[in-house]
């Protein structure tokens, strides 16, 4: 009988076995590691419950804002919880750095500004050192009704900084209006307005290192979950003279089967197959390049397979990469892989170049772990 070392992925072998198997045998698959992390989060992290939160339809606007702030605050604690959980159940002798600490710490300048007026659209601009000239317009997720505030500040924002640093693109994070106070169409309009301000350079990104938008340098629209839905919907309203490419992370493109009362509140229609509700069921209005990042254990959104076929039928290029994750949870190593995959797509789609050093995933990195501990727990 063998004994399992606590918080380790290896079994203590008999000496005869150790000699023949390099002193250890992995007993936990990558799938198993993800499951261990999920179970730890479920048991030890109260913030994990935010993943199942639903909008309180019929409540007053004040109550909706309070509910949104509450769920955002819980969700904002998840990035640290995932890192702590990974250290606890997967072992501390592995690099569990977040994408931000791995790629962006001290390497990206951040500026808040607005686009237009009546109403203005708040945006956060991430400018990496030595920008390549490409521009990404990004839309956070959050089931169309949350994802702003502290959740955007502590989760989506750091990932956009990492994406900027890794890809060399200037990233414009759109703080779009949320349902149910505003219809989803208003969020889409906010994104369209920001894209226009990038295209005509009224946002003045060229002063920061952006190149003029062209067929060789399209604006990359980046969207996560409901944000992916919104950027796909925005394509129909963006000027045909403005080239775009799409980078979608677990996009919610097929909402068939959603409750009619929810659809009416968010979209102003109960037709769950309408283009504004389920854009993935309809052919895109232009030829463009589209890349999807799919989670292998996603039980929240339907696969984007049908939409990718329609992209190709419309003359565009479609690709998909799969990552071991649920809709919301991935180990830090996979999070970094997702950022790197996204950076590669941006570089290819915009015909720009930037060195992408190999990620030291799985290697012990004491300095990285010490930095992560200081960032997450505070210096003693």
Automatic annotation (TrEMBL):
GO terms for molecular function: triacylglycerol lipase activity. Keywords: Hydrolase. Residues 1-27, 349-380 are annotated as: Disordered. Residues 350-380 have a biased composition (Basic and acidic residues). Pfam families: Abhydrolase_3. Residues 136-322 form the Alpha/beta hydrolase fold-3 domain. Residues 1-15 have a biased composition (Polar residues). Belongs to the 'GDXG' lipolytic enzyme family. This is Alpha/beta hydrolase. It comes from Corynebacterium amycolatum. The lineage of its organism: Bacteria, Bacillati, Actinomycetota, Actinomycetes, Mycobacteriales.
